[in-house]
Specification:
Distance between the termini: 6 Å
Structural class: alpha+beta
Strand content: 35-45%
Order of helices and strands: HEEEEEEEHEEEEEHHEEHEEEH
Shape: elongated
Helix content: 25-40%
Radius of gyration: 37 Å
Largest sheet: 5 strands, antiparallel
């Protein structure tokens, strides 16, 4: 009865902590929101304007082909690409931003990367602006060089069904908290190519927090919230441990594992049932008694657990119709737990 009341008390305490925790969390969050002076939304636009310059050939009279087409790989000379990026905050707040461009070869098999390597195309640049900025960077991309690298790799190792891709990326970072990557992607080691453009994140509006006020009151709320959270976690752990120790299934498995760990050398686990009809069972008080009997009659201890995993039996067979058994049952453990609670 006392144990039942104790569990109810712990449950009430845990519930109260939950209520207090939620209250402090809401209060702390409201303080943080109130102390933010302004939340602004930034917008980004990107593009890569490129031309594919051609080698002398018998079919194309043009020196280059415009973007948005398919191109014959063998007659590509180089790709002239302008990476364009516009960032707009909607205010004149000071912005600090960096950007760089690199190329990345990725060779994969069924989506699993086998080889990848980065090549620097433009060193990182750092700039400042008021509220908005534009990036316009030109690169001359030696597509044939990267195509030959991928082709040589595939030919040297003779692996079929590989996918080779060249990703040219411009990485943009604003105020050390927002990043975007503009990607110009094209296949390698193929007869013809097309160019795909993308960015990450993909054109979604971004929230930009102008200022945050970390005042003393807010810090006190955060500390109080953290202390209560620690107390709650400790309380829950204690509660779970107490309940676990009074759990019949836990005690059942604990007892079996204890015997196996200590006396495993004397035990043979049996994973099939056999007919005990005609045998007279003699139940022993504990496992140590079974060890003594094993030594006397020189017969191994067999361990059998029923299919429901709620009963485990250690058996010593004899040359007669007697067998010695030490059993552990969840049902019997539950009765012992109930008897202890009744005595309390």
């Amino acid at each position: 009865m006392k144990d039942k009341k104790g569990n109810i008390f712990i449950g009430i305490v845990v519930a109260l902590f939950f209520v207090i925790l939620i209250f402090i969390a809401i209060l702390s969050f409201s303080v943080i929101i109130d102390n933010k002076e302004e939340v602004q939304v930034s917008n980004e636009k990107y593009d890569v304007d490129y031309k594919v310059y051609l080698k002398d050939n018998n079919y194309y009279q043009e020196k280059f082909l415009d973007k948005g087409r398919n191109y014959v790989t063998s007659i590509i000379d180089y790709i002239d690409a302008n990476f364009l990026y516009h960032y707009y905050l909607g205010s004149n707040d000071k912005l600090s931003y960096t950007y760089r461009i690199d190329a990345n070869i990725v060779i994969s098999e069924q989506g699993n990367i086998i080889y990848d390597k980065n090549y620097k195309l433009l060193d990182e640049k750092e700039e400042t602006a008021d509220g908005e900025f534009d990036i316009d960077e030109n690169i001359k991309l030696d597509y044939i060089k990267y195509n030959e690298l991928a082709k040589d790799f595939v030919d040297e190792y003779g692996i079929s069904n590989l996918t080779s891709v060249l990703n040219v990326k411009m990485h943009v970072k604003v105020n050390n908290h927002y990043e975007d990557t503009v990607v110009m992607s094209m296949p390698l080691d193929v007869k013809t190519i097309s160019v795909n453009l993308s960015n990450s994140p993909k054109g979604e509006d971004k929230k930009f927090i102008k200022k945050e006020n970390n005042n003393t009151k807010n810090i006190i709320y955060i500390i109080l919230y953290s202390i209560l959270e620690i107390i709650l976690v400790v309380t829950l752990v204690v509660y779970l441990i107490v309940n676990k120790r009074n759990n019949a299934e836990y005690l059942y498995n604990k007892e079996i594992n204890k015997i196996k760990n200590k006396y495993g050398a004397y035990i043979q686990e049996v994973y099939y049932t056999f007919d005990l009809t005609g045998y007279k069972m003699i139940r022993v008080r504990d496992f140590v008694n079974l060890l003594d009997i094993m030594d006397i009659i020189n017969s191994p201890i067999l361990m059998i657990e029923n299919s429901k995993k709620n009963g485990c039996f250690f058996i010593v067979l004899t040359n007669t119709n007697f067998i010695y058994v030490y059993g552990i049952k969840i049902e019997e453990i539950e009765k012992k737990i109930m008897n202890k609670k009744a005595i309390k």
